[in-house]
Design a protein that fits this description.
By secondary structure, this protein is mainly beta. It is about 5% helix and about 55% strand. The chain has 5 helices and 33 strands. The longest helix is centred in the middle third of the chain and has 7 residues.
C-alpha cells in the first residue's frame, strides 16, 4: 500500500528515478550500487554473471519482484539484473530481512521490488549514452514516450532501448574480462479507469540479449579455445485489476508472466583434432522457462486495523539442456500456493505506534509439508523526530533448481553441474532487526541518521558436495548443512547543509559464518563477501540547470576461492585467498539547455572509477579460473550522455 517513508512500519530503502539518472545507471544492476547493505558483483570473467548480495547473502536469497510480482525465475536471475534497462524503471524499493510472509519462497536476505514507469505526462524523450574504457565502447540508445488523457482516466507509456558493449581484455591474454553484450528491449505500460475507483493495468515487454566471452570472439563459438555464449529471448508482462469499493475496502486481482528461452554454449575446443572438434559441438545447450503467477489481495480497514489477505499461485516450468550429457538434463515443474494474512495496527490516532503481524502458508511441490512464515514488525515514534523500528521476520528457500546450477563456469571448458540430493529440506531463516532513526532539522539543517542492528539465523543451509567426474563434467550434489548466522550493524547518515547540497552515506559492518567448516577451504566464513563496505554520495545544484554528482564506494577485504590447474594432478588445487580492499570514485556534471518552450536538452559527462580500482591478480591464459574475479567490474570509464525531451 502507498505510504510515506517516515510513516512506514518496515524500513524501506528507496532508489528514486533522480538517483538512477545521477548514477548514469543503464540497467537494474548498475542502479543498485549506492545502497546500504547491498553489493552487486560480477562472478564470472567469461559471461559476467551478475548477482546482488544483501547483507552478504548469495543472490539466490534475494527475492526480485517486478511491480510486486515474483516473475524473476531462477534461470532469469542468472543474467536478469542486466536485462532491464533504465528506460523501464520508475523506482526501486529494498526491504531487508525475511519477507516470505508476503512474497513466498526466496525472500530470505531481502526483497528488491523494481517499479516500472507508468504514464504521467504527454512527453517524449530520446537518450544516448556512450562509455569508453581503454578504447572499448559501451553504447546505449533509448526512447520513451507517454500519453495521458485530458481527464487522467487513461494513459500509455512505450519504451525502447538498445545497448552494444564490446569485449574487454584487461591483462592482454586474449581472454575477456568483460564479454561482448548486445541488448534490445521494447515494451509498454498502460492503464485505464473505466469506472469510479477502478483501474485496469496492462504491461508487456520483450527483451533480446546476446552475450559472449572467452577467447577468439571472431570465430564460431565451438572453434574457440574457451567460449561462453548466451542468447536470451524474454517476454513478460502483467494484467492487474484494482477496485476500491469505498474508503474501507479494496481488492486487487493480478496475473503476471515471464517466458524465457535461452540458447547457450559453455565449453571450448581443447585441441585441433577431428575428435576434439566433434566433442566441442556437444557443448551447445537450450533452456525453456515459462513462469506464471497470479492471485488475489484484499485490503480492509476497520477501526485502527488494516487487514490484508489473499493468495498467490506460481507455476514455474524449467527445461534445461545446457550440459553435454543428457544424464544431467533438467525437466521440472515447480508449483507453489501461498495463502497470507496480515494485520497492521495503529495503537493511536496519529499512527505513532504501529504493529504489523502476519502469517503465510506455502504449499510447494518440492516439499512434503506446508511452510509457515510468520512476521512481526513494530514502529514506535519515541519523540517527534526519533523513531524505533524492530522486527522479527522469516524466510524460506525451497529445494528447486537455483541460478548457479544453470550458469556453468569451469576451467578449460569443464562443465560443473549441481543437482539436489534426495529428501532435501527447505532452508529457513529467522531474522531480527532493531533500529533507531532520527529525522529532523538541526539549526535549520535537515538531518537524517539511522543505526540498525541485524541478526539472521539460517537453518538447514544448502552447501555443495563433490561427487565425481565424468569426462568434462564435474558432478556436485546440494545437501543440507547445519546452518549459518549473519549479524552486524548498519549506519546511515544524510544532511543538507544548504538548500541545493545533499550528502548521504551508508556503511555496513557484519559477520557471516557457517556452523560447519566449508569442505575444501577449512573456514566457516562466507566467501566472496566483505565484512565492511559502504558508500557516500554528494549532489549539488549550482543552478536550476547545472549540477554535479559524486560518489564513493568502499569494498573491504574478503575471502575468494581460487581453483588452479596443476598438470601433474587430476583435480584442480583449491585455494582461499584474501582480496584487496577497493575504493571507487565517480564524478559527473549535468547541464540542461532550454532550446524552446517545447524542447529541452540535458547533457551529462563524467568519469566512473576515476582511480581505476580493479583486481590486480587476474588469472592468465586458457587455464585460468573464470570464477576467480572480485572487486569493481568496470575499469576507469569516461562517459557522456545526451537527452532530448519534447
Amino acid at each position: 500500500t502507498m505510504q510515506l517513508y517516515e510513516k512506514a512500519s518496515v524500513k524501506t530503502e528507496i532508489i528514486p528515478q533522480k538517483l538512477i539518472q545521477q548514477q548514469s545507471a543503464c540497467n537494474l544492476a548498475t542502479a543498485l550500487g549506492l545502497q546500504t547493505g547491498v553489493i552487486v558483483e560480477n562472478d564470472c570473467n567469461n559471461c559476467n554473471f551478475t548477482q546482488v548480495r544483501i547483507l552478504g547473502f548469495d543472490g539466490k536469497y534475494s527475492q526480485i519482484l517486478i511491480d510486486g510480482d515474483p516473475v524473476m525465475s531462477s534461470l532469469g536471475n542468472v543474467y536478469g539484473l542486466e536485462h532491464y534497462p533504465q528506460e523501464m524503471i520508475e523506482q526501486i524499493e529494498i526491504v531487508k530481512g525475511g519477507g516470505s510472509a508476503l512474497y513466498g519462497g526466496g525472500a530470505v536476505a531481502g526483497t528488491i521490488n523494481m517499479m516500472t514507469k507508468r504514464p504521467g505526462f504527454n512527453k517524449t524523450k530520446i537518450s544516448y549514452t556512450g562509455n569508453s574504457f581503454e578504447g572499448i565502447y559501451d553504447q546505449q540508445l533509448g526512447l520513451i514516450s507517454e500519453i495521458i488523457s485530458q481527464n487522467n482516466k487513461a494513459g500509455f507509456y512505450v519504451y525502447g532501448s538498445t545497448r552494444n558493449r564490446n569485449a574487454y581484455d584487461r591483462n592482454g591474454d586474449g581472454i575477456t574480462e568483460l564479454g561482448m553484450l548486445k541488448n534490445q528491449t521494447i515494451g509498454f505500460n498502460g492503464f485505464i479507469k473505466p469506472f469510479y475507483n477502478t483501474e485496469l493495468q496492462l504491461s508487456f515487454h520483450r527483451i533480446s540479449e546476446e552475450r559472449r566471452g572467452g577467447s577468439e570472439l571472431d570465430k564460431p563459438v565451438h572453434e574457440s579455445a574457451i567460449a561462453e555464449m548466451v542468447k536470451h529471448e524474454k517476454w513478460g508482462g502483467k494484467i492487474r485489476w484494482e477496485h476500491k469499493f469505498n474508503s474501507q475496502f479494496q481488492y486487487k486481482v493480478n496475473y503476471a508472466f515471464s517466458i524465457l528461452k535461452r540458447d547457450s554454449y559453455y565449453g571450448g575446443l581443447s585441441e585441433d583434432t577431428p575428435e576434439a572438434k566433434l566433442q566441442a559441438l556437444q557443448y551447445y545447450g537450450f533452456s525453456d522457462n515459462p513462469l506464471h503467477t497470479g492471485g488475489l489481495q484484499l485490503n480492509y480497514i476497520v477501526n485502527n486495523h488494516l487487514l490484508t489477505g489473499g493468495f498467490q499461485y506460481d507455476h514455474d516450468k524449467l527445461l534445461d539442456q545446457s550440459v553435454s550429457s543428457a544424464a544431467y538434463y533438467v525437466n521440472e515443474t515447480f508449483k507453489n500456493l501461498g495463502i497470507f494474512l496480515q494485520d497492521e495496527i495503529s495503537l493511536d490516532e496519529d499512527g505513532h505506534t504501529q504493529i504489523v503481524a502476519g502469517f503465510r502458508f506455502d504449499d510447494h511441490s518440492a516439499l512434503k509439508n506446508w511452510v509457515i512464515s510468520p512476521r512481526l514488525n513494530v514502529k514506535i515514534e519515541l519523540f517527534e523526530s526519533l523513531t524505533l523500528r524492530a522486527g522479527f521476520t522469516t524466510g524460506f528457500k525451497a529445494p528447486q533448481i537455483f541460478d548457479e546450477d544453470l550458469h556453468i563456469c569451469g576451467l578449460e571448458g569443464t562443465q560443473k553441474v549441481i543437482r539436489n540430493s534426495s529428501n532435501l529440506k527447505e532452508e529457513k531463516s529467522l531474522s531480527y532487526t532493531l533500529g533507531f532513526e532520527f529525522q529532523d532539522f538541526v539549526n535549520d539543517i535537515p538531518v537524517i541518521f539511522g543505526l540498525t542492528g541485524f541478526y539472521t539465523k539460517l537453518n538447514d543451509a544448502y552447501s555443495e558436495k563433490y561427487i565425481n567426474s565424468n569426462g568434462t563434467i564435474e558432478f556436485w550434489e546440494r545437501i543440507n548443512s547445519s546452518g549459518a548466522t549473519v549479524k552486524g550493524v548498519e549506519l546511515d547518515f544524510g544532511v543538507k547543509p544548504i538548500k541545493d547540497l545533499e550528502l548521504r552515506t551508508g556503511f555496513t559492518y557484519k559477520n557471516n559464518k557457517y556452523e560447519d567448516l566449508l569442505e575444501d577451504f577449512n573456514t566457516k566464513n562466507f566467501l566472496r563477501t566483505p565484512n565492511l563496505f559502504g558508500f557516500a554520495r554528494l549532489s549539488y545544484d549550482f543552478t536550476k540547470s547545472f549540477s554535479v554528482f559524486a560518489s564513493l564506494k568502499y569494498t573491504g577485504k574478503m575471502n575468494v576461492p581460487h581453483e588452479i590447474i596443476v598438470d601433474y594432478q587430476d583435480e584442480p588445487l583449491l585455494l582461499l585467498k584474501e582480496s584487496d580492499s577497493f575504493v571507487e570514485i565517480d564524478l559527473s556534471l549535468s547541464k540542461k539547455l532550454n532550446i524552446s518552450d517545447d524542447y529541452e536538452v540535458e547533457l551529462n559527462a563524467g568519469v566512473k572509477n576515476i582511480t581505476d580500482s580493479y583486481q590486480k591478480d587476474l588469472d592468465f591464459g586458457l587455464k585460468r579460473d573464470p570464477g576467480y574475479v572480485y572487486g569493481p567490474s568496470q575499469p576507469r570509464t569516461v562517459f557522456v550522455s545526451v537527452n532530448l525531451g519534447f
